[in-house]
Structures are given as C-alpha cells and as structure tokens.
Design a protein that fits this description.
The complex is a heterodimer. By secondary structure, chain A is of the alpha/beta class. Chain A has helices at residues 16-30, 42-50, 61-70, 114-124, 142-150, 161-166, 169-173, 200-208, 214-222, 233-247; strands spanning 2-7, 33-38, 56-59, 74-79, 86-91, 106-111, 134-139, 156-160, 175-180, 189-192, 228-230. In chain A, the strands form two sheets. Chain A has a six-stranded mixed beta sheet with strand order 2-1-3-10-4-11, sandwiched between helices. A five-stranded mixed beta sheet of chain A has the order 7-6-8-5-9. Chain B is an alpha+beta fold. Chain B has one domain: 2-Layer Sandwich (Beta-Lactamase). In chain B, a hairpin with a 5-residue loop joins strand 1 (14-19) and strand 2 (25-30). The chains are: A alpha/beta, B alpha+beta. The interface between A and B is medium-sized, with 26 and 25 residues. The complex binds flavin mononucleotide (FMN). Flavin mononucleotide binds at residues 20-22, 47, 51, 75-77, 79-80, 89, 92-93, 96, 106, 108, 122, 134-136 of chain B.
Amino acid sequence: MSFFFTVSPDFSPLHISDWFLVNTWLQRNTGEQIHLELFDDFESQRKVIEEKKVDLIYSNPYDAAILVRKHGFKAVARPRDLTDEAIIAVAASSPITKVEDLKPQTRIATTDDPNVHMMAMILIEPADLSKANTVITIRDSYMRVAQDVIGGIADVGFFLKSTYDDLSDIVKKQLRPITTSRIYMVHHALLVGNNMIPLKEKLQQTLVKMSADPEGKSALEALSFSGWDLLEQEDVEFMIDLMDTLVEKE
Amino acid sequence: MKDMIPSDVSKSGTTIRHKYYNGFERTLIFTDIETSFPEGNLIVSRTDIDGNIIGCNKAFCDMSGFTKEELIGQPHCILRHPDMPAAAFKDLWNTVEQGKHWHGYVKNLRKDGGYYWVYATVIPNVREGKRIGFSSIRRQPSRVKIQEHIALYKKMKAQEA
Ligand SMILES: Cc1cc2nc3c(=O)[nH]c(=O)nc-3n(C[C@H](O)[C@H](O)[C@H](O)COP(=O)(O)O)c2cc1C
C-alpha cells in the first residue's frame, strides 16, 4: 500500500524538485511507499483533503485547523526555527512609510494563501482598516502581487515573509516593506491522517535524524530547513486556538 | 499577588488600595506613562482551568514588565488597571464560561505602574470536547479605538461608582 503525501501549495515553484528529494529520502529511510503529489492551488488540495485521500501533509497553519479538528490528523514534526510571518510592502517610491499612513479604500494585492492574508489583515488593523473599507484583489502568485504594487495597481501587497525574501533582487529593489509580523508562534507542520497514525512514531524517529544524514541534510538545506523538531499534539492544538482568535475579525 | 511597591515604579504615581472582584485587596501604584504596543507582535498568555497563568510569550513579559517566573501561577488580574470598569471583565468571564470568544479593548497595568492598551481576544481551550483552560491573544489597537474606549470606560466607571 502506498501512502499519499502532499505539501501546502504556498511553497515557491523553485522548490518542487526539493520536495521530491525529501520524499525519496523519507521512503528510503522508513521503508514505506509514499507517493508525493503537489498542487498549484489551495482549492484543489482542499478537495483531496475532503475526499480523505491524504495520509501525510506538510500543512500551513491555517489548513492545520481543518486537518486536526475536522479530520483527526496528528502532529508529527515542524521545521526547526521556521515560523510563518507576513510582510506588507509598498512600491519603493510610495509616500507610505508606515501602517498608520494607510487610509480607507487602500488597494490591497494579496494571494489566496489564507494564512498570510489573515496575518496581514491583522497588521493593518491599527490603521482601522478591515475588509469592509479596503479594496482587495486576489492574485494567483506573489510575483503578480509584486507586479501590482510596482505598477501602481495596488497601494500595498501582502507576502509570506519567506517568499518575499526569495523574490529576485531586481523585484525587491522596487518594493519597500512597511511592516512585518513578529508572531513567532505560527508555523507549518507535518501531520498524519488516520491511515498513517500507526506510523507516527517511526516517522518522528526518522525525521529527527534527517539533518544528521548527509543526503537528508542536503535535501533539507535545499528547502532552507535546518532540521525537523518533534511536534506535540498540544502545540498544534494551541496554534489552532491562536489562529482561531485571528480569523474572526477579518 | 503582592502589593505594588514604590521602588518598582518608574516615576511617582498615584497610590490606591484596590479591591478585586473576589474581595482580595492590594496596593496599586499607577502613572501616566504609556508603553506602545510592539508593532507586528501578539501578546499571548494561557491559563489552567482556574485562571492561573501557566504560560506566556516574550511580548507578554516585555509589555507587563514582569518576568515569566513572576507571572506563572498568578491570576491575570495582576494586570488589572483601576481605570477599567468591572463590567468589562464580568462580560469577559460570562462569555468564555459559555464557551464563546470574547473580544475587547483593555487597558493593562504594568509592574512599573505604567500602562498599555490592547485589543484582546479571550477563548476557552477545548480538547476532545473538554475545557482545559483559557487563553488570551492580544493585538495592536488603533488610536481611534483607544480614544473611544477611554471615554466609554470613564463613563462606565462613573456609573459603577
Ligand atoms: C485568558 C484570560 C486573560 C486575561 N487577561 C487579562 C488582562 O490582560 N488584563 C486584565 O486586566 N484582565 C485579564 N483577564 C481578566 C481577569 O481574570 C480579571 O477578571 C480582571 O483582571 C479583573 O479582575 P477582578 O475580576 O479580580 O477584579 C483575563 C482573563 C482570562 C481568562
């Protein structure tokens, strides 16, 4: 029997092959057959989650809520020292220098990444902005968000910090971050579904050793991970509680 | 909870005897020095089922002026500012005891007598259908909302007096 593994679609396309390397390593070191399938967008991935096809997932914090609370997924591991933060950027030439400069009817370019969008909406609350008094356009990639901001189609763009950091220097030169979240408690997580729960401990034991193995290490480094840390179920539960408090008032 | 002492307070402040909801009395010293919310942060704490603090993040320590060791085991009213109306907290507890989320603007008292405003959400932590404690996640409020709540809480306090 082969297990079904998938990764939250918020990774940069640059990392597609890196995830296949991780899966190859994982199969070799656990002796299990694992099939990796990647999705371009959140919609299509949610569909396979709802169809209960997923056994192992590298989930973003937002989807973790559905996976854990609705489908009974269990926590396995998290990437060491890596948290999810949002950046809000303006065009380099923009007169806007801080969140408080933003006015009602600000034009926002964002993606369908629910996690980043939510964190960034919290960052603009101090300017009394919400979805009710802003103009939000959803783009299919962070590159498009950057283009909207640079081209003056949007006043601000919402980015996942790690993706912003991955933008090319030419693009970054035309942008200027005005604020970054410093939440530190929200992160991606590797979770297992029903079929794979019996293998949870074996997976954990294998993953914590990944950074000590030369091949494992290079696969991790390609993703800019320094290693995996074991994740307790309560840690994920608390992160979901925290996310829940942020969701309500968008 | 220990009485506040002048040597902890950054500038001479107003000293009062404050009576908490459960009848406990404590000396409070408060000043007019505001600490602004650290941009982009969340202030997080959680309690056991009895409301005693069991954990908090660095922003909570930085903003309250207490160390983690000083906070663990204490109730959250260690932060209660005398300008806050009792009705706000009554509403908070009524709401979370019903299993719901409470949102509100809160003026908190620091160990050094100063204060800081937050927009707080308080929730029960539910695991497998059972409530195991409470948490609060606090974010940066807008200046407009703070001004509104200064006026509102003043009015509410006057009615409570
Ligand atoms: C999770 C949680 C967090 C709380 N955080 C605060 C806080 O930051 N500041 C505060 O004054 N009260 C907070 N409270 C409310 C206090 O428990 C208490 O009701 C309030 O300080 C008023 O004190 P008193 O009811 O003893 O007079 C919190 C309650 C809970 C359950």
